[in-house]
Amino acid sequence: MLPDQFSTVCLHVAYRPDLGQLTGRWLRSVSEAELHEGYSALRRAALHYACGHWLVDARRRTTRSANGPEWVTSRFLPEMQQALGQPLRVCFLVLPDYLASLPPNSSPSGPLQFARFVDEGAASAWLAAG
After folding, report:
1. Over the stretch 6-36, which tens digit does the pLDDT of each residue have?
2. Could you give the number of structural domains in the chain?
3. What residues have CB less than 8 Å from 68, skipping those under 6 apart?
4. Using CA atoms in the order 104, 119, 80, 78, what is the torsion angle rounded to 10 degrees?
5. With 60 as the cut, is the pLDDT of residue 85 above it?
């Protein structure tokens, strides 16, 4: 991985040119302001690298704000896809208990696709298939 200037105190951001993949790994649970700051860092990195394949590792975020996931999937990602001007495919790595509390992954088609996984290998395979 290349060193990356986009990381924050809460989110490690790295770009893998060999995979054409941007990775964001949350380092801990975050406040809503930190959540927005982290996703802003991902946005800057994605635009810098023109990268539409993301792996977001949220397994260390054991506490979530009530509207955080909704904001990410319904507002941030659609706006990000528009800003990027290319398809955006995002996989989220989450803890098994959290995944069990969510509705099943939908398979949206079109320029924005996202899915949740507990296994990083399965998540990477899904990204590579797109």
Report:
1. 999 999 999 999 999 999 999 999 999 999 9
2. 1
3. 32, 35
4. -10
5. yes
> Which residue type sits at 115?
A
Helix ranges, 1-130 (H): 32-49, 68-71, 77-84, 96-100, 120-129
Contact 6, 45 (CB under 8 A): yes
Residues 6+ apart with CB under 8 A from 97: none
Structure tokens at 58: 């949220």
Tokens, residue 16: 């893998």
Query: Given the structure tokens 């982290």, which residue do they identify?
Result: 38
Domain contains 30: yes
CB 49 within 8 A of CB 84: no
Domain enclosing residue 81, as ranges: 11-129
The enclosing domain of 71 has a CATH number of 3.30.750.24
